[in-house]
Structures are given as structure tokens and as C-alpha cells.
Amino acid sequence: MSKAEHLANVMVETFIEAVEKGLDVVPCVADSTSTAKIKPFIEKFPDRLVNVGIAEQVLVGTAAGLALGGKIAVTCNAAPFLISRANEQVKVDVCYNNTNVKMFGLNSGASYGPLASTHHSIDDISIMRGFGNVEIFAPSSPLECKQIIEYALEKQGPVYIRLDGKALPELHDTCYQFEPGAVDVLREGEYVALLAMGSTVHEIVEAADKLSELGIMAKVINIPSIRPLDRDMLSKQIQSSEIVVTVEEHNINGGLGSVVAEVMAENGMTGRLKRLGILDGQYALAADRASMRKHHGIDSDGIVQYVELNMN
User: Fold this and answer.
1) Nearest to 132 by CA among 167, 160, 102, 96
2) In Å, what is the CA distance from 185 to each residue of 201, 233, 285?
3) pLDDT for 132-181, tens place per residue?
4) In this structure, what are the phi and psi dihedrals at residue 184, rounded to the nearest 5 degrees?
5) Which spans in the chain are helix H?
6) Chain CA centroid to CA 256, Å
7) 89 touches 60 (CB < 8 A)
């Protein structure tokens, strides 16, 4: 497995490459230059960054205005503050008006660990799915992240990209090519299908390794594209699985688990679905990531334990 890389660094490097290629990219931050790791971009293009201060509503409104003026506006700030504080501006200024804004939800999920629920973002996918026309992505590795951002910068219209706040190792080889809507099968298997988005893909990969030692070959499916999503392809990939497990650092309502539940219900599937995530009515534990994931059963051991207990 390759050296881990922080996805915000990948984001900034991709912005620099895009500007050097001639794309009119203008990053906007809300006093979040450190969170966005944007310093290398500022050093190269000091007049191309807009910092509105700690004012997330202004951040999103400004980005929408820049987009209406022909710029490729990108917002770079912590996911909980983008989603909660600027909710109306995201809905109206960006989504409803279909402006060409790319929104990056940094340090998503429970990346902020001990800072607790004020800084955790465990509802961002569910909120964005409620807005009609924004594309939604959650990369699981540096290469996938780069390709998603490249696609987003060329795409006309609103995009939300959920970025984890920890360095992630590479999962894909150099031949990997991200496709919007595609289902990314990392490993074939029978009877059990494990699905995840973003950083929890690493948990299901590790869980599959542990299950294989027990003689259980689990299919491993990465879902980097929440909207668009090839639901027919997803249906085909899980239709023969008797146990389907979704894993996410997100509330079980409205995120990946809900997407898979919808696909299974709409296609009359009889497999048993288990949504592993932050349970209904709960907040993520205020703790380091390993402790938090263990507490909520979304680490590799928790996944293995569920599968073992439910094998016929």
C-alpha cells in the first residue's frame, strides 16, 4: 500500500494544475486557509484567492457571484460549517440557481475527533441529497480524489465533494479511471457484500482481509459517486448477496445506507441489509478516530463481528 496522503493536499495540487492549464479557478475560504492547506496555491497565485473571514454564508454567496461572473468558484472550508451555517445559501444561491460552484466539505465525518458534535459532519450527504441538482462525491484515495476534482472543475454546475480530514493510502493502481456514477468493485466475493464511501472504504477492505482468513470471501464495493449513481449497476453487483453491509462515518439515515436500502427495496431484493454508521438519534463519539469507530461498530473488527454473527 502506498504512502498515505492528505486529500486536501491533493485538492490544492489539482487546483494549481488546473490554473496552469488555463482554467479560471478561484478558491474561496472562510478564514480556513489552514484547514484547506491552501498555502502552495497562494504562493503561486496570490491574487486568485478570496478570503471572506469567518462568514460561511458570505463565502457561499460570494462563490455564487463569482460563478455568475464566469469563474470556476470553489469553496474550501470545514464540512460542518459549510453545511450548517450556510445551508440556505447552498440551497438557494448554488443549487436552486444552478451556479457553477464546487463545494469542498473538508474534515468531514468525525475527522475532528475530540472536538465533538459542533465540528463533526455526519449529516452532510443526507442534506446534499435533499438538494435537487448538486452532484455528490466522496473519494476514498488520493488518485480517486484527484480524478474527481478534475472532473468537477470541468463540469458545469454545482458539485459537492466530501473530503476526509486524515491522510489516506492509495487503494487503486495507476490504471484506475473514475467515472461519474460508476460502482467501483475492489474485490469480488460471494454471499457477503461490503459497501462504503470515502475513508470507511479502507475499513471494509481490511474487514474483507480478516474475513478471508475465516474462509468468507466478501465482495468489496467502493461508492465514490453518490449522485449521479448507476443504480442498475449497483443492483447487479449486490443482487446475489445474502448479507449486504454498508459502512459510513455518517448517520445511517440519508447517507450510503439509505441509498443502498432504496436500491434493494425498489428492485425487490431479499438480501439482509445492515447499515453500520452513526445510529438514528445519536451523535458521533467525541474521541480519536479509532475509539470512535470502534464505539459505533464501523471499524474493521465491528464489520467482521457483524458478518460472523449473521452467517447461516
Assistant:
1) 96
2) 11, 11, 30
3) 899 999 999 999 999 999 999 999 999 999 999 999 999 999 999 999 99
4) -105, 100
5) 7-20, 33-36, 39-44, 56-68, 79-85, 87-89, 124-129, 142-154, 201-213, 231-238, 256-266, 289-296, 300-310
6) 10
7) yes
Instruction: Record the cell numbers describing residue 160, joined without a space.
Output: 459537492
d(CA 304, CA 206): 9
With beta carbons less than 8 A apart as the criterion, state whether 277 and 252 touch. Answer: yes
Distance separating alpha carbons of residues 292 and 199, to the nearest angstrom:
14
Q: What is the pLDDT of residue 312?
A: 66
What gap in Å lies between CA 254 and CA 245, rounded to an integer? 15
Q: How large a percentage of the chain has pLDDT more than 70?
A: 99
Among 199, 149, 156, residue whose Cα is nearest residue 21: 149
Contacts of 201 (CB under 8 A, 6+ apart): 140, 141, 171, 186, 220, 222
Written as nine digits, the cell of 256 is: 450510503
Bridge partners (DSSP) listed for residue 101: 73
Q: What are the tens digits of pLDDT across the range 111-126?
A: 999 999 999 999 999 9
Per-residue pLDDT band for 1 (boundaries 50, 70, 90) equals: very low
DSSP for 147-208, please give it: HHHHHHHHS-S-EEEE--SSEE---S-TT----TB--EEEE--SSEEEEE-GGGHHHHHHHH
For the chain, the average pLDDT equals 97
Q: What are the CA-CA distances from residue 292 to residues 78, 249, 261, 283, 297 (Å)?
A: 19, 10, 24, 11, 9
Its sign, for the CA torsion 190, 193, 197, 202, is: negative
Scored b (16 or more CB within 10 A) or e, 43-81 reads: eebeeebbebeeebbebbbbbbebbeeebbbbbbbbbbb
Verdict on whether the full-model pTM lies above 0.70: yes
Closest CA to 163 of 185, 153, 180, 148: 148
